[in-house]
Amino acid sequence: MSLLAQDRRSRPVGSGSRLDAAATYAILTVVSAVLAAPFLFMVSIALSSDATVQKAAFTLIPREFHVENFVRVMTSDAQMARWILNSLIIVAFACVGQTFVSAMVAFAFARLRAPGRGLLFGILLATMMVPIEVTIIPQFILFRHLGWIDTLLPLVVPSLFGSAYNIFLMRQFTARIPRELDEAAQVDGLGYFGLLVRIILPLMKPVLVAVGVFSFAWAWGWFFGPLIYLNTESKFPLALGVQFLSGTTTNAQTPPYNLVMVGALFLTVPMLLVYFFSQKYIYQVNLGAGSAGIR
Amino acid sequence: MSALARRRFLGATGALLLGGTMAGCGGSGSGAGGDSESITLTMTAWGGDIDRKTYKQRLDMASKKYPHIEGTVQLTPGDYLQKLTTAIAGGAGPDLLEIADHVPAFASKNQIRPLDDYIEQSGMDLTEMFGDRTPKIFQYEGKQYGLPDRSGAMVVYYNRKMFDAAEVEYPSKEWTWDDLLNAAKKLTIREGGEVKQWGFATITWWPYWMTFMYQNGGRVLDDDNRPVINSPENVEAMEWYNDLAWKHKVSPTLRDFANYGEGVGPDQLFAQGKLAMEITGFWNIAAANSVDGLDWDIAPLWHGKEAATSAFFTGLAISANTKHPDEVWKVIEYMVSEEGQRPIIDNGEDAPANIKVQESDAFLKPVWAKREVNMKAFAESSDFIFIPPITVHWNEMLKVCGDNIQLMMNNEVTPKKALDTIQTELERIMGRN
Amino acid sequence: MGEGVDVRVRSVAPMVEKRPTAKPWWTQRRREALWFYIMASPWIAGFLLFMGGPLVASLYLSFTDYDLLTPPEWVGLDNYVRMFTDDPRFWKVLRNTTVYTLLVVPITTVLSVWLAALLHKPLKGMRVFRTIVYVPALVPIVASAMLFSWVLAPDAGLLNRTLALVGIDGPAWLLDETWVIPGLVMMSVWGVGTGVVLLLAGMQGIPPELLEAATIDGANPRQRFFQITLPMLSPVILFNVIMGLIGTFQVFSQVYILTGGGPNDASMMLVPYIFEEAFRNFRMGYASALSWLLFLIIMTCTAIVFKTSSRWVFYESEVRR
């Protein structure tokens, strides 16, 4: 039997019968309707008039189309461009750091045995178990001593050291790759680094892209860190700047939800597009576990 | 590009970016100025776009008067207390702070300066400037810790068309509780089992029920800050309050509110034209104005055994950690003067605390007003603002009260039981640290 | 297996012809261990620089009385004692958080696997469906919360009206102390997307030859799914379960925005409670103690899952040893 992935004579596994396809479509349509509802609601609110906001009379399906809300938000603050630039900086560091650095660390945890590995892995997981609300104060003091308050540094530098979530994730994916590749590479004189870069990383492309997308989404939407560490508005990322829209003079007031949702759309749509177009790389037709080969 | 080369490239780019971001590095706090004479002060505040604009404007005006002082405002686009306490804990606090119900907490922990000496030196008469109630809100243990800056009493908004249709006289401060109830009954209209129009609205928010308590001669804490919330006057007041929804059915219950949808409270129902009267503050003017065809006006609140209303207020305080207290004083002194308060009303931000400004034509007939509104109601109400029982435990107290009042307003416990529970809880909370 | 076969062929030859210099075991192991530390060093360094100190500091703070504005005051175990003996809210909050987590994690795990199985089928238009499934994770919680509280409205809400059609008198959900947590659990369903994305990525790594071979051997789709796909996915499922536990125990925004912990603390969870104690009630010391307790709870649950995982998680890399 031919083991070449390209040499498929049988139908792709899992396609089943027409009935199966129809049932799948039906179920997915219902599920999607439920899951898409918040987004639709968001759009509907973004297009509402101020009066509707004051009455809190929103509808799920948009009935008003005040597209000028988008213009209002863009002109309400000339800093939008600056904010987007800041976001891009944070995101660039996050994507690079958290994909490649985390991949390397994950590889180490998954495939290299060493004394203390178990303990370190436990510590890795443990760092995710302490709520940030209490570590934020000592961290703030630390960054203050470094003189990094009101700069982008506290938001950007830690990304270069990998993140526990991504390391754990990629470790799980890396552990599934067969060991024989390690030995083959060794015998070919590759060394561990070469093994990582030449063999494992290419095999991990789907999850690398997924992690890249997640990192993008996380860094693009993150506003808690920026809130605490930044004071000057021109340094805010978009996620934080957009929060200005929801501020009100007193807590009792209704936030201008229509403008708030416009801001949220500015935040959400890029992430959506990134995910939509990256699917090609995450869900490429499987090439098999060993097909990357050695160049 | 080989993996190794790619990493080197990224490393170089990273270093460039790092350099770029570090160039934006700046020190925080005061004292960062160009020449040795000029001083930069940082102010923290909360709110929205309009607050940002207004504070900046007022700080700039202060700079014109004192050219060697420059002020920057940091408006927190998130939780104010969290950001402020984190900054202070990290040694990066502001020079000047906007402050409201945190005065006792901050004062008792020596984070803000007493202003009595400054006030005496400058000859400011707080009672003359702000009335005799409002300055007390910013006092702690007899000392003045903040200057009132914005202060608007809660007033009653009423829908004139509904009143005219039902032939009921408009509300005024002569009204008693009976007048309120009678009017609400006439103004509640039901058609086919569904309520088309409510007379009044009662909710769990503290300015509402606490006002009724004070109007009935009751209090939450006594002069020694001990809880007295389950007094007979309060029980009576709460029974009357709760009856509005459950007995007389002139107000939506909490369940009714939930059915209207998330985020629908009295302000929203009023805007929808489904509510004849509600208690709310200055901020709702813009909101009500944005609804076409709503014919409304405002009036001071009715009275019970006593006249009382609550107010929404913010003030200005000097940080205890600032290096330039005298300069901060100069700035806040200016900001509460008539000149310094003008932007508050010109921008439609809020009601000013300075009484002269509240009574001025600029406030009574504001530039931004789309229609005639009885702005005098605010000045008239300032005489009977009650001083809320704010202590270090304010937040905890509100939580306990809110939880139990909610049970009462869901008709799950009687008012007496609710208040007794709150009393016990408050004794426990305020008895310990 | 394409070039994979070549690898095997190629590597056999040198073994026969060019015997590699035999390295003694211990050097080989040492080399591996060294490389482990080299490659893990970025994370280790990052941890020591940015997390280690703050973690220790927050542990220290848990033994103090700290209002954030004045220096912390040592009080020893007082905070921990108070937690267990002098804080009626604590037990309620603990119970709520545990119930919520133990409901959400299994439900979302099963749901995400089911959805991933559906979305993996090579049908047209799957890209659109896959994006829609991930979208709720990107929508701000405020929007989802507003929509959902409308759905859960006591009389006019979509859910109760639907239940009424089959004769059930639905509870007041978010206003009802018994039903508020189930209401929140239902809202968590909107978060399945992230897990699904990972499972789909995991499914990509399953060699189709395995499935083809099974089909040829006569396995039906159900058997293929349960005997091949699911085991191959188990490392990812483990990840989803662990991260689900860690994340759900720390739920914050949904509670804060949707119910504020109400009614009467019936939906109050640990992290909102910690936030309240730290930044509203000026008790950062107590909040730190609560955080470390939360840490212990999560750690214990995670350890249990890991220990039992060897029974059901299947790492292909370990099989051929």
UniProtKB/TrEMBL annotation, chain A:
Keywords on this record?
Cell membrane, Membrane, Sugar transport, Transmembrane, Transmembrane helix, Transport
Q: What is this protein called?
A: Multiple sugar transport system permease protein
Task: Outline the extent of the ABC transmembrane type-1 domain.
Answer: 84-278
GO cellular component terms, A-Z:
plasma membrane
Q: Which organism is it from?
A: Thermasporomyces composti
Describe its membrane topology. Answer: Multi-pass membrane protein
Keyword set includes Transferase: no
Q: What InterPro entries does the record point to?
A: MetI-like, MetI-like_sf
GO biological process annotations for this chain's record? transmembrane transport
Short name of one Pfam family: BPD_transp_1
Q: What is its main location?
A: membrane
| Family of this protein | Belongs to the binding-protein-dependent transport system permease family.
Q: Where in the cell is it found?
A: Cell membrane
Instruction: Determine the domain of life of the protein's source.
Output: Bacteria
Transmembrane portions of the chain: 21-47, 83-107, 119-142, 148-169, 207-230, 257-277
From TrEMBL, chain B:
Q: Which Pfam families match?
A: SBP_bac_1
Q: Which UniProt keywords apply?
A: Signal, Transport
The record's annotation in CDD domains points to: PBP2_TMBP_like
User: What main location does UniProt list?
Assistant: other
Q: Which PROSITE patterns match?
A: PROKAR_LIPOPROTEIN (PS51257), TAT (PS51318)
Compartments where located: Cell envelope
Q: Which GO terms describe its cellular component?
A: cell envelope
Which family does the similarity line name?
A: Belongs to the bacterial solute-binding protein 1 family.
What is this protein identified as? Carbohydrate ABC transporter substrate-binding protein (CUT1 family)
| Originating organism | Thermasporomyces composti
UniProtKB/TrEMBL annotation, chain C:
> Where do the ABC transmembrane type-1 domain residues begin and end?
94-305
Q: Which GO terms describe its biological process?
A: transmembrane transport
Q: Which InterPro entries match?
A: ABC_transporter_permease, MetI-like, MetI-like_sf
Where is the protein situated, by its record's location annotation? Cell membrane
The alphabetical list of record keywords is: Cell membrane, Membrane, Sugar transport, Transmembrane, Transmembrane helix, Transport
Task: Give membrane topology per the record.
Answer: Multi-pass membrane protein
Q: Which residues cross the membrane?
A: 34-61, 99-119, 131-153, 179-201, 230-249, 287-306
| Family affiliation | Belongs to the binding-protein-dependent transport system permease family.
Per its record, how is this protein called by name?
A: Multiple sugar transport system permease protein
State the species of origin: Thermasporomyces composti
